[in-house]
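Hi R.,

As promised, here are both runs. First protein below:
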Amino acid sequence: MLLCSMVCPYALAQAPCVFTLSGNVSDADTREPLAYSAVELQGKNIRTIADSNGKYIVRNLCSGDHILVVSHHSCKPLTVKIRITQNTVQNVVLPHTVNELTEVRIVEKYDLKPSAIREELNSEALQLKKGLSLAEQLQHVAGVSMLQTGSTISKPVINGLHGNRLLIVTNGVRLESQQWGNDHAPEIDPFTAHRISVIKGAGALRYGSDALAGAIVIEPKTLPSNGKLAGEIQTGYFHNNRMAFFHTMLEKNLKTLPALSWRLQLSSKTAGNVRTPDYYLWNSGMREWNGSAMIGWRKPNYRLEATASVVNSTLGIFLGSQVGNVTDLNEAIKRETPLFNRNAFSYGIERPRQELMHVTGKVKHVYYTDSRHILHTQFSYQRNHRKEFDLAMITDKPELDLVLSTAQLDLWYEHKHDNWMHTYGSVVSIQENVWDGSRFFIPNYRSYQAAGYYIARYNKHKNDIEMGIRYDYRDLTTFRNNNSGRTSDERNWNNFSGTLNYQRTVSTRLQYTLYTGVAWRPPSINELYVNGLHHGTSSFEIGNAQLKNETGYKTGARILLNGFDSAVQFDVYVYNQFFIGFINLVPDTPATLTIRGAYPTFRFVQTTANLSGYDVKLTIRPTDYIQLHTSLSVVYAYDVSNRTWLAQMPGNRLNTECRVALPNVRTFTGNRIIAGVNSVFRQQRLPEINTDYALPPGDYHLLQLSVVTNLGACMLHAGINNALNVSYREYLNRFRYFNDEMGRNIFIKLNYTF
């Protein structure tokens, strides 16, 4: 009895070591999740790392008082006392930007995302992708692939769609450039991005009726409001093409004038010839410099913001893509190594090349009497200047010189009433394009657009409903010079588009979204009137002036499952989009012989088509230190009119990744190893009558390895891409006819924040 009386209380006291502490770590300013934050229980030798969404879990805790210590790159550690008597949810808000302690809040519910089908790359994820192009940063997002022209030009593809079907919005301004060409990469400086969202569903209605693929929304950080000077310096080096990049940012909110804040950014990249596993690609280098400035003025009932930015780049076009005659073209396509090439490294950029400059200016005013009534007024101006230089120099001037100017006025009003948020908006824009040079590609034109839209969102309890309707009118006038003088041709289009989303959060373990929508776009200027050599893609393109509207009817569903205390997360997105008047650029034989050489020929055709597919993501956390990620993307693109598959569509893609968190070593914190394999499978779904110049290349599997560590305010990221130096060709790269892709690429990157 005496023994029992002594042992039983001790046993009872030890029994409660079964409790779980979980929560999210987020930024105090932006409320963005702080991925891979370190979470420790002081004096208990218990430590874990938050996942990529900022969520952490500590299991098998005893009841009683504990001291929780949370830290993150560039943040001061936060210490807080907690009492555990049951399973506890504790969300931590860290002063990620201002480095000042704020309160810890305990909540029991998850914050809900908007109902659109979207994927996000937050600032932590973007830190690991610095130095890459926009398309390269996004290609590991489920459903996103990359359309390439050689090794220097790339643009994102969402579920098989790109170009004018995919809107890119940066800092609230829709990008207007010659993005219609496959070799026209978006003129975006990814260093300015604090968050990038990929909207794959019907949520892009506000940005345009032509978002049949969706939208990519690039958001900078909000201007500071803490009265301090802050900034960051980023630099890195990639050994394959000896690319070096540098980026710096400074921002400040004035203590003496708290309403005023500003930010300055500068970035540059320089790269030489790319090396495949077996040879260099002559004239595949690039140079780029970018800059931006932002200034803001905040008062209790209004906010005024002005932004100016410039993107400037020079891109080399691989010498081996330029072929003199049809016989040599056929021989070049058959060869495993380029027919025309200089197997050497150089930073020089010769003909053929592209020179690009994109300037953007924006002024935005936001007026609000309270949080329920907000009026936005925004004016933007963009000037896109593109020069293309052929291999054969006729004069020192570019053979093609395009200047595109766009002015746009946006006005929208937001009104919150009970559980409803109403948005009423209008858009007016004018655009002019002027060309010069020794070869014709597209005519001069002037375009007008006017649009109005209404979006309503209802949110109550576990239900989120969003619906919208939009009307667009577009007018296009083209101008040509001929023997009888200047002639013009005017065309106009108008139509409605609409969306409907429903999202239900059944519990913290289950959420699903259903949506349907219709979007449309008129044929773009190149689809209608192009007739000539597209030197950047080494192809001859032929337009069709009889093309009509392209309309897509899209439905889809998304299911999010979260089980075993978030140890397993499953995300599946399925969709179907039926197109009336689908416009596609398809190979057309034979090749076209011009005075500049022989080039593969491509023609714009219109058909009825159906695109369907699915994106699946699975995340498993077998322990607090290991995360396994897998994503699979499949697109079925069918030509309904001709009862066959569509050409030029991405093959199946599978990405797998393992992240292992390592213990801190003295002042080195947040240590982790990242290993991944990117698998792309040969496109088997081809038209019955395949007019392509070469069959799709085979499967390939690329191994990626990297390590990350933090030393105070510095983050060091080093690794290797294509670690096994695999030789492969990508179906969505037009230059697959001539050369292999980049071989092994070792890199090191440093980020310093102050």
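And here is the second one, sequence first, then its structure tokens:
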Amino acid sequence: MQHRRRVPVWPGRPYPLGATWDGKGVNFALFSAHAERVDLCLFDARGRRELERITLPEYTDQVWHGYLPEGRPGMLYGYRVYGPYDPLHGHRFNHNKLLLDPYAKMLYGHIRWSDAHYGYRIGAPREDLSFDRRDNASGMPKCVVVDTAFTWGDDRRLLHRWHESIIYEAHVRGLTIQNERVPAHLRGTFAGLGSAAMIEHLNDLGITAVELLPVHAFVDDRTLIAKRLRNYWGYNSIGFFAPEPRYMATRDLGEFKTMVKNLHEAGIEVILDVVYNHTAEGNELGPTLSFRGIDNKSYYKLPHGSERHTMDFTGCGNTLNLEHPRVLQMVLDSLRYWVAEMHVDGFRFDLATTLARTDGGFLRSSNFLASIGQDPLLARVKLIAEPWDLGADGYQLGNFPPGWSEWNDQYRDTVRRFWQGADGTVGALASRLTGSSEIVGREGRRPRASVNFVTAHDGFTLMDLVSYNEKHNDANLEDNRDGINQNYSWNCGAEGPTDDPGIRNLRTQQRRNFIATLLLSQGLPMLLAGDELGNSQRGNNNAYCQDNPIGWIDWHNPEEEGDLFEFTRSLIRLRLAHPVFRRPRFFHGKMMPHMQIKDITWLKPDGSEMTAEDWRDSGTRTLGLLLGGDPGDEFISLLGYPERDDSFLLLLNAHDHPVAYVLPAADQRVLWEKLIETTWPEPPAERLYRAGESFEVARRAMVVFIARAHPGGW
């Protein structure tokens, strides 16, 4: 096919990268250090027919660029990049492959898989050393030129204080697709998440931030499509600036912005789970969709002396080369774009250890971490690391720099093991309840550096945590080999759904134990969306490919007993009302000024303080802690709070039998008012108790008291 140039092409500029509409025309700029030529391909409105192929006329500072004075928003485009096809030396250029612009702000369509998407001939004797001449354009999504104009009004980042945050981890599609209160045509989309019904639910619960599973454009793996599955979670990015098309009810970029604006108006921050550690192109036998065909040797980490292959610290086949200045620039530009243009409030970095690897090893002073730390925009947003990857020395919990918070899987495992009834857990539990200072408390870091969670998208839901001893991932069609085996779960007496009322009541009680523990711990609590509704994944602990009712939240769960939503809401309100549960500083175990108790005291059942020998007793499955009403913040009075908070008593019993606790004295005139008891159904009992009285904590239960002054003394 002959392509005639129908519009004039001017030299344009090498910056900014991507396709930029300036009100008169469109500037195109693409980085490639090793390309020999770049063609811009323009398509019809449906992306099916290539209308024109234009060679970018200029090459400046490793950037190919040109300007179309007649270009307009809505134009569909892609690139063909010419250069050496020399896999042994890391080059995989193939101009027969239409490539996505790494800086594309929107994509149209999706990949229709075929062998033509691979730069080599599948089945050839030396496969990836061969060269495939088939054109893949008909099966590729197309990049869209966008107009970023949007009326934000006075919208801006909310800047909630870290320790006052309640994070809600959610999947855009899974959260809304079955919610009948969301308009049918908006379910599963950004517009659905920003709808009045969803915001009402989040506000009613008390959520201050939603942490969204990946919303960057991603790819459904060919192997999953062959099994009639999809990459539901989205940890398979192909575009770091474009929102995922399947989450859009419209072709308007303003849909995402409207969602953010609506959430902000409701006081809810937006945190994005971002995947910059790898791309959807896989290893050296993967497809050529974008980065590989633009400049494989620049974009990916390649082993020294074996550049035919890709380095893999992620388990996904490749690793982005953030040691290359242009690749690092792309990631930083992406982050700034989502903050400045899309108004998001922060990021959770998937496999963040990979991002900070230099010459293969994790480095706290890596270019990536250093660049974010000094960036005047990015250093001020919420930064959360998943502090591990699959490489050697990949587990780096507690080793990220000041300013970062980190997913604390030790919190998850310790709390699960304690309520499971495991021996030898109370010492670790005490640390998790108080912010894990021995892990994250260095260099002036605060309790908020520990993101506490019991459940997350990866693993059992809260309902499944108390309903299954083993994973049941058969629907993933991997013979139940995928997903972790060590879940620290307990089915309470039956595997899966049961009609036994005793088991069902115990499961509800255990879920209350987990919720209460999480929301009354120091640090930053994160809830998994749907846990407050009793959502189940039928025992699947790796629902990454289940874009169906297994992975979606069930808003009408027949297995749900009692009102866990109300219980969760009451705990969130208690936490937000009392600064003692969300101290910005760690406890010190010291006497409080003008009071006769410490900021925190650990208690035995007889009411006395725990000794070193008590901590060493591996058979102990109870824990009592007295919080002395110290908010830990000298500025709290400036915010309108009293300088002292109430004192609280928390009693946790993971034994299979009741344990009697002698209630301590917080001061000479104290009464203890019972606020929360996780037994279900809660037995009738008095709510006010004197210091020195004995209170029986039911088996596998948690009780929370608040200190009240006795009106007439003893």
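A quick note on the second one: The radius of gyration is 28 Å. Let me know what you think.

Best,
J.
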